[in-house]
Write a structure and sequence with these properties.
- The chain is an alpha+beta fold and 233 residues long.
- Strands 1, 2, 5, 6, 10, 11 and 12 form a 7-stranded antiparallel β-sheet that branches. Strands 3, 4, 7, 8 and 9 form a 5-stranded antiparallel β-sheet that branches.
Length: 233
């Protein structure tokens, strides 16, 4: 069942730019790409002692300016606090509270604001909200489980501009809080698909969750990029 679901997800994603015709158009790739389990496992092995790691394996040219980023993500045990819970923490706890959000989103640093700005977000707003400007993300859970939060409105975000070569993502809005999101439980074999501009993050991970990521994007990533962990020496 897992193999069938994964094969279907990959097949649908790779065929996106080719549906207009039976044959690749001039200038588009004419060969398929294989990413082996051994390559995925080699990247995953570098993650297990880390709280959070998000690595693309390859950025594959799928034609007409589109690329497909395929990678592996590891997240250790965590629970994201609401704004109200963070405020209720002692001073020492409040200093550490934003770290939970950074597990879902890039560090805010001194970047331009994005999303609606509200100095008094609702107490039930969730920290760690993130959106991507141009990339759809597909998750296929391969190990562990957790409760994600999706949809809703992002408040008090900051612009993020990740490395366009290997990712993991193109520009987006992160480091803010989510209002009106819904929570979904994800376990091994489940698939989550998040369109560009849609909020997503992890609310509660009891132990860990590992998942394959499939990210189609147009004109953002460098086609042909290979993760240094598996690149030929």
């Amino acid at each position: 069942m897992k193999s069938t679901a994964l094969t279907g997800l990959l097949t649908a994603a790779v065929l996106i730019p080719l549906t207009a015709g039976a044959q690749p158009r001039p200038g588009n790739p004419t060969t398929a790409t294989v990413i082996t389990k051994a390559e995925i496992d080699k990247i995953a092995a570098t993650m297990q002692n880390l709280t959070t790691r998000d690595e693309n394996a390859r950025v594959v040219d799928i034609g007409d300016g589109w690329s497909m980023e395929v990678g592996i993500i590891h997240r250790a045990k965590q629970r994201v606090m609401t704004v109200g819970e963070a405020k209720a923490q002692p001073a020492a706890g409040r200093g550490a509270a934003p770290a939970a959000g950074r597990g879902n989103a890039p560090a805010a640093e001194q970047r331009a604001p994005c999303g609606e700005q509200n100095p008094n977000p609702p107490a039930d707003a969730l920290q760690g909200a993130i959106t991507h400007d141009f990339q759809t993300e597909g998750y296929y859970i391969v190990s562990g489980s957790g409760t994600a939060f999706i949809d809703g409105k992002l408040l008090n975000g900051r612009r993020s501009t990740n490395n366009p070569d290997g990712g993991p993502n193109g520009p987006g809005c992160g480091g803010g809080v989510a209002v009106g999101s819904r929570k979904v439980e994800l376990k091994v074999g489940d698939v989550l698909i998040v369109p560009p501009g849609v909020i997503h993050g992890w609310f509660d991970i009891p132990d860990h969750v590992d998942y394959l990521s499939f990210r189609p994007s147009h004109g953002i990533m460098k086609n042909g990029w290979v993760n240094p962990t598996i690149a030929p020496k």
